[in-house]
Amino acid sequence: MQKFIKINEKDKVAVALAPLSAGMEISVGGASVVLREDIAQGHKFALTDIQEGEPVIKYGQPIGIAKESIPAGTWIHTHNMKTALGDLLTYTYNPEHPHLEPTEERFFEGFRRADGKVGVRNELWIIPTVGCVNNVASAIAAKAQKFCTGTIDAAVAFPHPYGCSQMGDDQEHTRQILADLINHPNAGGVLVLGLGCENSNIDVLKPYIGSYDEKRVKFLVCQESEDEIEDGVKLMEELAAYAQTFHREPISCSELIIGMKCGGSDGLSGITANPTVGAFSDILISKGGTTILTEVPEMFGAETLLMNRCENEELFEKTVDLINDFKNYFKSHNQTIYENPSPGNKKGGISTLEDKSMGCTQKSGTAPVKGVLAYGEPVKTKGLNLLSAPGNDLVASTALAASGAHIVLFTTGRGTPFASPVPTVKISSNSNLAGHKKNWIDFDCGVLTEDTDMETLSNALFDYVIAVASGKLVNSEEKGFHDMAIFKQGVTL
Q: Per the domain annotation, does 61 fall within a domain?
């Protein structure tokens, strides 16, 4: 088993792939260094003397600066390094023009909808227009489980606290996300459940939904019903009868849309799990498919790597706006733009936002950026897309689903049981987590530190995603977990 790694030849640090003991001699690139202290798995140590104020280099890029002189062999973390990032920046487009060669077509077993869209699940969804009817939605979903036979996978309610007492963009975002979910092809039938007096009532929401199949989408206003649960169950029975007419059939992977997100990261996330997802993304895109990368605040510090891969200057400018709009959002709330990672991230070995961002962007692979999406905007262009959404796990994963992702790949070094509106594949960065939380983790990338190579592992992940798209349940689905969260930004009346 490999015990440490120097990721890039320019790096001044190496990362422990297993716990290392003080006094151990480490040989890297013909040079040797003796560890001055114990180094935990996922944490960094200096390969050379680093002077105070000097950049700390990892992934071939600066991830911060030394707060003090750091001798070779020393543990490097928040106690002796800090972020080097500032506020708004001016960017220059330096195009790299990456290119992926097409590869052999692959197929999965999916559901072709009447409008031509493709789903990987055939579920019955209940979408409340407002939080006041959340419990009604859940009660209807519970009673509708009896209709989940044949090709129907599940009946699911998506409670949320919004839809009323909102203003401006905040209200618009709620309406757009709800409309996106109503139109999502993973649902064979959708019941839109309103109260009747809310700001985002059904009549207001319909223009956001656009044209729809009346056999697939039904509406119920609770204030107009004598018994909303009984009426809701009747409508679910009608939706189930329609959904039963859909059956899995071979569909090209060129129609598959996969969201990519990380959370609860550790020092191995950017070495094992995230690069594996990046290699997966390249494979899917080489077959004509689509991936979506989000969590904009965790691009800060690595954004130029994405900007220079934009296919044209228009996309470059959109990416600049994507980054600076989020920075201005932080500043408008008097918050620090470059806040350090979460306590779990720090415990896992991530020291600065640049450190996390460099690891986070590994999920994008090497493909050119083909699209840049606003929050709630459905994907239109095949290939790699960037999506505006925060780093929060539930909010970002919901945003990926709303933009059209059939499945979300979620990498983690700490573990989490959450789900999203679509199948959410939990991918561990280390094998200890995968062994400890088998009920959470679906795919282990920790084996990269042992005897598995990237090509083998990324192809195995691709095969796994094809299986999930064809009906294999991930852990959270087996437990019946389906979560959603909307990005709350504005005033509550």
A: yes
